[in-house]
Write a structure and sequence with these properties.
It is a single chain. The chain is globular, with a radius of gyration of 14 Å. The chain starts with a strand and ends in a 6-residue tail after the last helix. The chain has a single domain, classed as Rossmann fold (3-Layer(aba) Sandwich). The protein has 147 residues and is of the alpha/beta class. 37% of the residues are buried. It has four helices and seven strands, in the order βαβαββαβββα. Bound molecules: adenosine-5'-diphosphate (ADP) and magnesium ion. Magnesium ion (MG) binds at residues 36-37, 55, 57, 77, 104.
Length: 147
Amino acid sequence: MHLADEAAAHAFGARIAAVLRAGDVVALSGPLGAGKTSIARGLLAALGLAGEAPSPSFAIVQPYDPPEIRMSVLHVDLYRIEHPDEARELGLDDALEDGALLVEWPERLGDDPWPEALWLSLAFDEAGGRRLTARVPDAWESRWPLT
Ligand SMILES: Nc1ncnc2c1ncn2[C@@H]1O[C@H](COP(=O)(O)OP(=O)(O)O)[C@@H](O)[C@H]1O
Ligand SMILES: [Mg+2]
């Protein structure tokens, strides 16, 4: 899939939001500047968040809960995590009981930390936009392709 600009990234995030459920993990993989936070912002805005979501690169974990947003979401950026154990201490999986996880730099947790994650990989393309590839797990098969 091709995302031509930031607006396209926001729109794509909104399409994920439309089908997102508690227990879902959406992994956003790709180098710095690839557009991971942009997809997350589109998703969070579509869930009702007013204003622009901050990048969680310093906070590491940015939680959102009703009523500021339609369902609980943890927006996580593991860039600063140096060892998978540090990330495990965040207790991210606990959040899946009643919310969804949106994780930038998921590979900081090691190889395939969530086999059931919708795994989105972003790369720069020559035209200035981004290329997105998705690994769609069983849990997402009935929701894919997004409408
Ligand atoms: N699909 C896209 N095409 C072109 N530019 C984009 C796209 N998505 C995001 N950008 C721009 O790239 C920059 C970095 O985006 P960001 O979402 O912060 O990346 P990341 O979280 O992966 O580091 C921002 O200036 C943003 O506007
Ligand atoms: Mg980011």
